[in-house]
Amino acid sequence: MKVAIFGSYNGGSIGDTAILLGLVSSIFRVSEKDVEVTVLALGSVGINEELKALGVTERVKEVPVNRRFSDLAFGIGEYLDKSWRYFKRLRGEPPLNKGRIRRVLRDSDVLLVGGGNLVMDLYENWPRILRSVCDVSKELNVPYCFVGVGSAPINTLKGKRDLFASLKFANGVFFRDLASKEYCEKNLGFDKSSVGPDLAFGIDCPELTKAEKKDALLLNLAAVYSDRWPVKDPDKYDKYLSSMVELVDRLVEKLAIKEVVIFNTNYPLDEFAAEDFVKKYENCSYAPVSLSFIRGRNTVSQLLTICSSARFSLVTRLHAGILSKISGAYVFAVEYQPKVRDVLHNQTSGTMVESFDSVLSGKAFQSINQDFSAGEREENFVGRDEVDKLVRQVVKQCKPQVV
User: Fold this and answer.
1) Which residue of 39, 252, 287, 293 could cross-link 262, Cys pair, CB 3.0 to 4.6 Å?
2) Which pLDDT belongs to residue 403?
3) What is the mean pLDDT of residues 352-370?
4) Containing H/E element for 159?
């Protein structure tokens, strides 16, 4: 069986990479025959290095579909690729190498689209990119399914049209949370979908959950409302950072935290927010706690190891929360998007979620005390078995004769 995978995989988001690792790992586990996996990527992911670090012995083929001249050396290919993408945009076309996509799909039995927050138009060009790949699959009669995807926001008529067309011709659509399913029913009129787990839970590393935990608080900060965020609001961004300083101090006091460790999942965007937070924290906080900052882009396995050493994690990014949960931490999550609450509440244990507004008002996590983490740690409601069940169902639905 030959499986192609497409999503917003570009190496910048560790959350997207974790989703891809969970999906690929599951495909190898559930396949009864030899399977070849090709990832249609929008940047350099380094998926085989990530798989090796997690102990997965199988390997995949990674094909960059946002490039045309990538094989040319001495930086010439990179320069020509930038020019090529620029002229594509001038002509109103998505910056995709359709010839490369067509060659991969022509040799594939099935295309899996996902996971991640793909059914949205927050980024203007994304719906056209998604539809272009789905259209090629349809033209070649290669069945495709959406698996483990999220949705929202969808605000433009053009985005609605392209997203609906992509979903309409899929052999199956499996959202990762009920809120996404209901959002698409309301905003797109698309109601032929199901709900399954987030694919990142397909990562299998039980030894990390059992690792010895320190009295440390991990901290992840999305750059919400900053000048690098799609929706910009400088005043609200400043209030958000100030409120997070107050929240961290509250958790440090109530949970007897000795160390705060900041980590990124979306590099470099999160790093800018973390730097702004550190400046504000050093000026405004008097808490007797050690503050450290793990800079740069880490691999999924590196972040899992980092997360496995701490008892607690305060996150804004969904997959910062999921990686923390896989590693066995207790998680406090800030709901800056509905997916954060829906996924973490319904698929994990030992997680508390508060709204973004409650953080801004200073009311978030007021009831927390040291008893929160007392007692035996419960397993998450979702793990590799649930992801394997979903992937097996998706593959059968797309190509019944191969499994």
Assistant:
1) 293
2) 39
3) 89
4) helix 157-168
